[in-house]
Amino acid sequence: MIILLVLLLLLLAVSYICYRMVFFVPKQNTEDVISVPDTEQYALYKNECVKMIKNVLDIPYEEVWIQADDGIRLFGKYYETSPGAPLQIMFHGYRSAGERDFCGGLPCAIERGYNVLMVDQRAHGKSGGKCLTFGIKERYDCLTWINYAVERFGTETEIFLYGLSMGAATVLMATELELPSNVKAVVADCGYSSPADIVKKVMKDRHYPVWLLYPVVRLGGIVFGGFDMESAGASGAMINCRIPVLFIHGEDDRFVPCDMSRENFRLCASEKKRILTVPGAAHGISYMVDKITYLKELDSFLESISQ
Known about the structure:
By secondary structure, the chain is an alpha/beta fold. The chain has helices at 2-22, 30-34, 40-43, 46-57, 98-101, 105-111, 138-153, 166-174, 195-205, 210-225, 234-238, 258-267, 286-289, 291-306; strands at 62-67, 73-79, 87-91, 115-120, 159-164, 183-189, 245-250, 273-278. The chain has 14 helices and 8 strands. The chain starts with a helix and ends with a helix.
């Protein structure tokens, strides 16, 4: 009995360490927001990205606070171009920030006359919580932001969901919820197929024994994070998706494989779906690699929805 108890305590201790490594989000500061990965894939675009991030940080905004279903306070920045304009709600990625992930997308949206609500995902930025859930709980936060927008701006205001990486998975997973009819479309840039798939993929990249470690990581999420990684996924949500979706992915993405967006696209049941893959683009920088094609496809997609 004592041996079993020791083994159980050891398992819980290891699962807690895994929880901290995978799901816990350290406190962020401005330097974290401005930082760009220091790898050869990003080197060519690093200086331009940093400049764009700093420019975005200088754009005036209104602070917005709402409360998630589980009581966590969520923070967002509202950028208004004109009252009644279509609204883009933007969701950043894993341990990132909207100012970094949408340093190109935010100015482009404003220039095109959209109002923008750029949110801090739970456990990030000014939002409350210490644990991210790869979209499991974030999809409900997405719905809460949508309901806030409908209450504030009315049912006639067109809403577009825009996510990058974990944010892309979040908005794709949110489509399986009961969304208001004025949510017109989703843009999913480099999203993964499911939380379980991306965690296993990263483990393989780092040469960890997936068969041994993944169950412990999953246990950490269940016990200490209050969620199960296998309870939802983007690819599963796509089977019943009826909302128009534009999938975007860099073909040289070494973090979230481009094939994950291809799978999501293949499974998507929407009659209005498109996919753009950008040759040579690493994770999250398809816009930087080919701005012309990126914006042409994005504009064409959004205009087709508004017609």
